[in-house]
Amino acid sequence: MGAGILDGAMELCKAKLRERLNDTGMALGTYAQPYHDEFRLIGTAYGMLPAKLIMAMHFLCACNNPDRKHFKAYYAVSFWVSFFAAAGGGSLANMLMQEQPAVFVDDAVLPIFAICWFLVNYAPKEIGAVMFDFFPIRLICRIASSINRARSICDKADLAVEKLGPGMFVGPVLVGSIAGLGGKLLFDFASRLFVSKKVAGPVSRELVYPSWATWSACACSFTYLLTTYWMPMLPKDVSCTLVVTILVCQVLASELSGGPADLSAPIVSCFHKISGIPAPEVCAVPSKPVKEVKKAAGNREGEEEDAAGWDPRARGLCCAFEARQRGEESSRESGGGGGGRCRSHRSSEKEKEEGAEEGGLASNSRQPWQRQPRCQRPASVQRI
């Protein structure tokens, strides 16, 4: 009984809200109508490039990800991770709406992507990456990628409204946002999955530290749905042109200024100050593989041990552990700093004795201030 009353009240509130929004949109639409032709002219300029060429430039832009060098040695991983970055958002949105992804219905998608991926990663002298570094080509490719991304957001928002109904608010916004952001999220998760032992960093950098990619996808999806369905002040083609223009302006500002040009930064900063929700602390993600990072940390630890001196009890544990591994029972009685020696100790002492004999010194003339040679401790032996 209570649930039925609550559902009825919710539907009544949504109906009132839709009515208010519709009236407001119709009133604002009369003021925006004189500018429809100008926006359609801009949309015609965006449509001068063929769709397949826009797709190819979008793929070229997606394959030039700075993190591609971490999995370049594994061509299959590199191919699919880059494909997730290029076409993952639209494909994920289609699957959520129970539609077939574009790669299944268009035979040109995968070959075009394969050519762009090869030119960027494995062509002689990486000709694709070299071309992308040329400013005019990079600018055109990024503009084409923004056009492709904006159109994907609008198309998937239309699909969500068609599937879920025009009265839904949250679902279409989420589907449109996934279409514009899903590729980035899938790339982060896939790269972490395949090269987790190579790259140090959070599971998904975009999920942990939301950037312009997140906020722009949500804002563009909301803007398109607001101006087209909830407050119908603009036709679909004009509203789509408005969304494309927002992303293209950000690309132009970024390329001309040489910075990220995050247009959402002031709004996000105000949101954190007003709401009291702390902004995530951005920490530097190391670009070196984890193996190199651990090796550098081990070298620093070794230098500290050299300065502080090697504990003979730890040396005895190390030697005893290796002796047990070889099955030599006699070495167990050697004690903490006794006669049991591991291979590293024996080889270092032998070299020092030979050097002392060549210099005319006694082989057992070790002075008290001379430290015992170090040995490499197994991972299972804890420091004392």
Automatic annotation (TrEMBL):
Pfam families, per database record:
TRIC (PF05197)
Where found? Answer: Endomembrane system
**Which keywords are on file for this protein?**
Ion channel, Ion transport, Membrane, Potassium, Potassium channel, Potassium transport, Transmembrane, Transmembrane helix, Transport
TM spans, by residue? 41-61, 73-96, 167-187, 207-231
| GO MF annotations, alphabetized | identical protein binding; potassium channel activity
Q: How does it sit in the membrane?
A: Multi-pass membrane protein
UniProt feature, compositional bias: Low complexity:
366-378
User: Region Disordered: start and end of each range?
Assistant: 324-384
Q: Which domain of life is it from?
A: Eukaryota
Main localisation, per the record?
Answer: membrane
Q: Which GO terms describe its cellular component?
A: endomembrane system; membrane
Q: Which family does it belong to?
A: Belongs to the TMEM38 family.
What is the name attached to this protein's record? Answer: Uncharacterized protein
